[in-house]
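note to self: dont lose this again. the chain is below, predicted strucutre after it. 322 aa total, dont forget to put it in the shared folder this time
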Amino acid sequence: MVARSLYCIGTRKSDIFQNMAGYGMFTGGLGYHHGVQKLGALMIPASTGNSKRQVHLITKFGTTVVHCMPNYGIYLINVFKEMGIDPRKDTKLRLIMLGAENCSEETRKRIETFYGVDAYDGYGMSEMNGPGSCVECRQKNGFHVWEDHYIVEVLDPDGEDPVPEGEIGEVVFTSLTKDAMPLLRYRSRDLASFIPEPCPCGRTHRRLSRIQGRFDDMMVFKGVNIFPVQIEQVLMNIPEIGETYLIVLETKDDRDWMNIQVEVGDDILKGDPEKREALRAHIVNALQSEVLVRPEIQFVSRGSIPVTEVGKAKRVIDKRTL
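---
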């Protein structure tokens, strides 16, 4: 949904993003680029990667808005720490817009806590004019669909019929205002549900729930369908665990095994063994309650799980053999 590029934006308020006054840093595709310009805001391309340079631009230009993938927002936390910069004191950030990959509520909270600003999620696809097909309001409780541009349905993933209101199904788009490539009932492979209750913000456009996962992301483990975001919700809610994790699926003795690597501090790795095992048991029990399987938990040192500065996070490695 979001192209891998960074931009600075700002100069005046809008009735959509009221906190965009001043300068801001924005990651987005051409849709965001032209949309921000239409608001009368300044946008300065800043290329990709080189995170220390991005942090430097955020502080130097007085950035007020960042738009990035949740994974990159998490990645930048360690970059800020390494550079000795506190975004709460040393920047002018007012809000963060997230997109391009699933973001659990727990990940959002980690981002908001570190940067000291509200973080809003958005949902869209390149096939539907890029980012912004649906976006959260200040209630942070579901994506408002831009129904003047799209008809959105939630259908049975294995058929053509709508699922009952409030149940999870496949999100399907029909474009209303695209000229070059109109699409009818485009199947996104994303899973979500409609929220039937009216939004307290007063908008009347329908709301989609948080994306629960994609068919492409779903793991079938010992007969159970599991989405990585379900595991993330549990891990990011445990303070002792760092921001990065990796799920490894393997075959041992003709049986499937799930090993989840999580980063922890030296106080856990080298500290009291009983405390370490109690934390391991807590994680296993919490995951079993959520996904109905008992994985193995491997504690690793912070910074040992490979991460990338650009692109979506790789959370699952499947080494299983038939």
